[in-house]
Design goal:
Number of helices: 2
Strand content: 25-35%
CATH superfamily: PDZ domain
Helix content: 10-25%
Structural class: mainly beta
CATH topology: Pdz3 Domain
Largest sheet: 6 strands, antiparallel
Order of helices and strands: HEEEEEHE
CATH class: Mainly Beta
Number of domains: 1
Number of strands: 6
Length: 118
């Protein structure tokens, strides 16, 4: 059994193009990036078409029925940009992603040191 199958899920999403935000994602990677041959979601526009559907660090593996693993970044981007009103993506993501939140609040923690002989 493949380790990726144990730690990742594949999710199919359809994004509707927004006149203001496009599909609301930024990607990086592909075969032109020697360190990382995956197409990774690096930014999601808040309240954009991908918000709540795609997570940071999701790996795009299919665009409109075309497998894009090991594609050059610009070719995968072209497939996405050529999508008119909708784009269908299959993304691979960690089963238990770390959720980042802008609404996290700091907590106050006080540590007191006491002597053993007291």
């Amino acid at each position: 059994m493949n380790d990726d199958e144990d730690t990742t899920d594949c999710v199919q999403v359809t994004l509707t193009r927004s006149p203001l935000h496009g599909f609301g994602i930024a990607i990086k990677g592909g075969n032109d990036d020697i360190d990382n041959q995956s197409l990774i979601i690096t930014d999601i526009i808040k309240n954009g078409p991908a918000d709540g559907k795609i997570l940071l660090n999701d790996r795009i593996i299919n665009v409109n029925g075309h497998p894009v693993v090991r594609y050059l970044e610009y070719i995968a981007l072209k497939l996405i940009r050529e999508s008119t009103d909708f784009v269908n993506l299959i993304v691979q993501r960690q089963k238990h992603p770390v959720i980042q939140s802008d609404s996290a609040s700091p907590i106050k923690c006080i540590l007191n040191k006491t002597r053993k002989d007291e």
